[in-house]
Design a protein that fits this description.
Elements lengths: L2 H15 L10 H20 L7 H23 L7 H29 L3 H25 L51 E3 L13 E4 L2 H11 L3 H4 L3 E9 L5 E10 L7 H10 L4 E6 L2 E7 L4 E6 L8 E6 L2 H16 L1
Parallel strand pairs: 1-3
Antiparallel strand pairs: 2-3, 3-4, 4-8, 5-6, 6-7, 7-8
Helix pairs in contact: 1-4, 1-6, 2-3, 3-4, 4-5
């Protein structure tokens, strides 16, 4: 699994952790404040590194900066994410940019240590571009501590530059994060899979109702499916559904992939480690859908299909706990059958 796919998977899992009620609900403001706290620590750690003034110093600086970004990325992955499409999309982009910055810093460190000025200079240019984009994303989220001062004022190909890279400060106007004001953005995706508006077709069942999951989150599941060659090759439809109990609480989120043709044998086995990551699994089933259950400490999950060797339906679901997951998946399948 690539680092980028891993970041996207973690982002989706964290989104699922926020679907419970009561104390498990995380507001957008609380989430952004958590991001701000992580960036505050990262800013302090980067400031402690000083500024490189030679190629040799740049190798050490970039290596240490990479470790600081790794730590920040790890902390960001631990945050619970609210059910707000705009905030989720920007946060996912920020995770991806941090991941790219780590890769670029590692390349800078390697080329600088080898005395390769041209390669190091090119990587610094690439890093500065990504760094500026990440700063803008921090401003868009409202996490203003994620808009950092320029890191590389030293040009490895010559004397210190006089103009820092373009990293404009965030706009003074607060970002629009309320879906009632502006619809959540749709993630650009060149996949052969389309979004199915399934929730609106499901009848209320035993007091449970259904609502569509934000497109940005559904697109993330599509990226997970497209990370494995066998499922990436299969066109089909993907739906995301929120299961809501009689008290109006979202108790589970259910994703379904309906490929146009059954998936080749072995594809489900390839998808399981991408979806589950390091979590310990156990056999689980809901009706004719069988697979694995697991927990990552933030929620309880199920991933499976109607046939592990020729899947025509792939289901991924998350609840705040096992009871919520069981009730949510049961209500979803009952509504489908109705």
């Amino acid at each position: 699994m690539s680092r980028r796919v891993g970041v996207l998977v973690v982002a989706l899992l964290l989104v699922g952790a926020g679907c419970g009620g009561g104390s498990g609900v995380v507001t957008a403001d609380a989430f952004v404040n958590g991001i701000d706290d992580v960036c505050r620590t990262l800013d302090r750690d980067l400031g402690d590194l000083g500024s490189p003034s030679s190629l040799d110093e740049m190798a050490t600086y970039a290596s240490d900066a990479s470790k600081a970004f790794e730590s920040a990325l790890s902390d960001l992955k631990q945050l619970k994410v609210p059910a707000n499409g705009s905030v989720v999309a920007d946060a996912k982009d920020l995770l991806g940019h941090f991941d790219d910055e780590i890769t670029q810093l590692d390349k800078i460190a390697k080329s600088a240590a080898a005395g390769d000025q041209d390669t190091a200079s090119g990587q610094v240019t690439a890093f500065n571009t990504t760094f500026g984009e990440a700063n803008d994303l921090g401003g868009s989220l409202g996490a203003r501590r994620c808009s950092f001062d320029p890191m590389f004022a030293f040009d490895v190909a010559g004397p210190p530059v006089t103009d820092p890279p373009a990293t404009d400060p965030p706009a003074t106007d607060p970002p629009v994060t309320d879906p009632s004001i502006a619809p959540p953005p749709t993630v650009s995706n060149a996949s052969n899979k389309t979004v199915l508006a399934l929730a609106g077709e499901l009848p209320p069942t035993d007091g449970y109702t259904f609502a569509p999951t934000d497109d940005a989150i559904i697109q993330t599941f599509i990226l997970v499916l497209d990370s494995v060659a066998g499922s990436a090759a299969q066109a089909g439809q993907v739906a995301g559904t929120e299961v809501i109990d009689s008290a109006g609480t979202v108790i589970a989120r259910v994703f379904v992939f309906l490929p146009e043709a059954t998936l080749p044998a072995g594809v489900m086995d390839e998808l399981v480690p991408v979806v589950v990551g390091p979590a310990v699994t156990s056999p689980a089933a809901y009706g004719l859908v069988s697979g694995v259950g697991y927990s990552d400490g933030n929620g309880t999950f199920f991933f499976g299909s109607n046939d592990p060797t020729a899947a025509g339906v792939v289901l991924w679901a998350v609840g705040a706990d096992q009871a919520g997951l069981d009730a949510g998946v049961g209500a979803f399948l009952a509504a489908l059958a109705g």
